[in-house]
Every structure is written in C-alpha cells, then in structure tokens.
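Changelog-linked ticket: acetyl coenzyme *A example.
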Amino acid sequence: MTATKGLEGIVATTSSISSIIDGVLTYRGINIDDLAEKASYEEVVYLLWFGKLPNRAELNDLIAKLSQNAALPEQVLDLIRATPKNVNTMAALRTFVSALALYDEEANDMDVDANVRKAIRLQAQLPAIVAAFSRIREGKEPIAPKEGAGIAENFLYMLTGQEPEAIAVEAFNKALVLHADHELNASTFASRVTVATLSDIYSGVVSAIGALKGPLHGGANEAVMAMLEEVGSIDNVEPYIQDKLNNKVKIMGFGHRVYKNGDPRAKHLQKMSEQLGKLTGNTNWYEMSVKIEELVTGMKGLKPNVDFYSASVYTSLQIPRDLFTPIFAVSRVSGWTAHILEQYENNRLIRPRAEYTGPSHQAFVPIEQR
Ligand code: ACO
C-alpha cells in the first residue's frame, strides 16, 4: 500500500454535479462562463440540487421558499448576541450552523424530502447568520430578510440595512454563482466523508465549514486582502512579492491543485474587480492585484485562483475582510448540500487506508522500566 500525498490525482467518487475537464468547469454540464454571465444564483442552486435549470414557476417557488426560510430561530440569535465580538468569523459560523440543528425538529430525519427541506433552510439561513453576526458585533440590530428578494440582494440588504444598488447585486450574484460548487474540493469532500457515515446534513455542513476555514482553501480570500493591505501601494508590490518568493513564502490566491493553466473563474472576478473599482473611484486594489499577478505568473508560472480577485471585489462592495470566507460558505453551501444529497442517494462508507510508516515489532515495556 503506497499513499499519495494530499490524495493528488486520486478519483475518490463518481458525481454528476460539477466537472473540471481539460481546465473547463461545468455545473451539471453547463459551462461556468455561461452561468456567470447569464444565471441568477437561485437558478444555479436549483441546477445543483435538482440536476436541471428551473422553469419560471420552479424558480419563483424556490425564491419564495428561500426567503420564507431565512428567519433565524430566536435561540440562535441569542447565541449570536452572546458571542464575543472579536472571534474568528468562520469559527463563529461553524458554531451557529451547528446550533441551527438543535432547533430543527427534522435535523435527524433521513427522509429525502426532509433533507431537501433542510438544504433549503441551510441555504436560506447561512446568509442571515453572516449578516446578523456582522450587525450584532457592530452593536446594531439584525435585519429581517425581504420576502421575494434573491439571496444576493437580501444578503447585502441584511448586512447594511440599505437597498443595495443594482450593480452591487449583479456583482455579488456573479460571485455567488462562481463559488457555488467545485467538484471534489476539500470542504465538499469533508462533507461527503461525514455524511457517508449516515450522519445528518448539519454535521456534513459543519465539517465543510471547518475545512473551508483554512488558508489553503476558502480562507485564502481573506489572506489576499491582508496581503494587499500589507503591500499598501503599487510601488511596494515588486519588492514585496520578490521578497516573499525568494523566501519561499506562498502568495495567497495563486496556484491550484487541479488547474495548472489558470482557474476559469478568475477572469470573471478580475473583470468585476476592475468595473467595481472604476465605479467606486478606487482602482488601487485592482491595479495592485494586476501587478501582483504579472509578477507571480512571470516568476513562478502560477496563475490566480478564484480567491485572488474576489478580495478586491468584496472590498469594493464594502464588505469587511473577515466576512469574505463566511461569504464563500454562503455560496458553497449549495454545492455542499447537493453533494450530501448525492452521497445519501448512493451511499457507501468512505474509509480509505493509510500506508503505515511507524516502527514495527516493538516490545511492550512495563511502566516501571520506562
Ligand atoms: N505561491 C508560491 N508558490 C506556490 C504557490 C503560491 N500560491 N502555490 C504553490 N506554490 C509552489 C509550492 O511552494 C511548491 O513549490 P516547490 O515544489 O518548490 O516546493 C509547488 O508550487 C507545489 O505546491 P503545492 O502546495 O504542493 O501544490 P498543491 O497542489 O498541494 O497546492 C494550493 C494547491 C494549496 C492551492 C497551493 O497552490 C496554495 O497553497 N496556494 C495558496 C493558497 C490559495 O490560494 N488557496 C486557495 C485555493 S482555491 C480554493 O480553495 C478556493
């Protein structure tokens, strides 16, 4: 038995949800480029869960269900209020999502329809949790979701208390579409491993949030913004990047396990970053990002991934830096739950082996002789 480090190249399951073939990403066979330009996030959620694009009535029904299910249990709001203000936001999200299960009577119901209802609730409640936590820690009251509004509009509204501009809703919707699913990424795999024991959907999503938190995965978008802030100005980009690369420090937002010729999602985020920068009258973050890309690609051949330009996009939307990774979860929860439903459909326990590298034939030494 020989282990493959990081399971690179290992095909661990079949899935009909999303694919990366020759560097092209599709959701249910539809190119991400088309979905990014043409689809609402709710259409993508429907596509991921049910395997086809919704017709108008099906879409309206899903939008209505999402807004009807967005209200948080009072006990979870109390927990958010009791949480220290300066905690790690992903640790907070992980805790609040876990708490949702305690107030869901169907939490442990393994019926297919019950699981779909829980997927809807999770998708509806994650944006509400992130917005409520953000407001409560600023000493403000949480805002109830608007009935009938889509997730992009509702999230920005619940976060700021103001009607978002159409361009902000459009940009945020696109970011949600681009982050919704990504084959067997680390957090999705974590969710599938958890539910393959026939544990419940909340446990699967909590495992996924824990995996997404790390800077080698979803946490990279916050790390990119921290880097841009540290760099500070375009003149400092070159010495900063050269110093990091000479010292073998990874540049966040670059590289990918699967894409070696570039992440197809990055170009959409780059375009959005430029547009929003121009619109807000601050193109500094965008220009610094472009310069970083030139240097990292030139020196290391590494291309930006989905996290790189998301950082400047979210900053232009005036979203606090430590909400970037929770926002990733707001979108990826659709993919996680689609994979969890698929795993239940055709389940087998996921239990690989390890190549043992420890000592062998060791004698037991009684404690008095150690
Ligand atoms: N900056 C500098 N060097 C890098 C980077 C980077 N961002 N990424 C990879 N490398 C180098 C490594 O140092 C290593 O070099 P070496 O062979 O000289 O030691 C080589 O490229 C291979 O890197 P690995 O980390 O082994 O590649 P792996 O496939 O395991 O990692 C990963 C992929 C984790 C995404 C990596 O590229 C990385 O750490 N990137 C930065 C973090 C990041 O942006 N994560 C988000 C990924 S997208 C997402 O999850 C949503």
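Closing comment: Example verified and attached. The beta strands are 18-21, 24-27, 30-31. The radius of gyration is 21 Å.
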